[in-house]
Design a protein that fits this description.
The protein is built from 11 helices and 4 strands. The chain is an alpha/beta fold. A 4-stranded parallel β-sheet has the order 2-1-3-4, sandwiched between helices. Helix 7 links the parallel strand 3 and strand 4. Helix 8 packs across helix 9. The chain is globular, with a radius of gyration of 16 Å.
Amino acid sequence: MSNFVAVFDACVLYRESLRNLLLRIALSGLYRARRTARIHEEWIRTLLHQRPDLSRDDLERTRRLMDEAIPDCLVTGYEHLENGLHLPDSDDRHILAAAILGHAGTIATYNLKDFPACALAPHGITAQHPDTFIEHAFGIDRSAVIMAVRSHHASLRNPPRTTEELFDSYLRHELATTVALPRPHAALL
């Protein structure tokens, strides 16, 4: 298991294709994926609001499976750090607090403006767009990322999807580099 730790913001976990890919890369041991119960609650609440056709029970099952798949993924006891942290959106302090306590090097988020470098640097943490995060993972171990994409593709059975349909789902989530890097290996996917 890698010593590199990443905390995922709720906006990253909200998107099924991205959530699935990030967790599959984490299962390779390339990094340790961390989150909190509060982050879980935020992505579930947002998804239920946007998609009333989904049930809380199904999303709670997804949450449980995520937590069971990645040992030691939940950061707890971070709340005491929140009041001493300053971010543009005070509602995001819990994410930075969890990253500090969880010894994360990165917060993966779409909301980069909410995690300015000047607030994160003193803690040795950076914020990265998920596409950049996956690009860095690819640079560390391209075969782990390719195998994660392959595993994700193989899991899509109901209905089955082509590699291009999988890539299209990544593109809908602003993951152009994530698509470009494994595309030359599409025959393996």
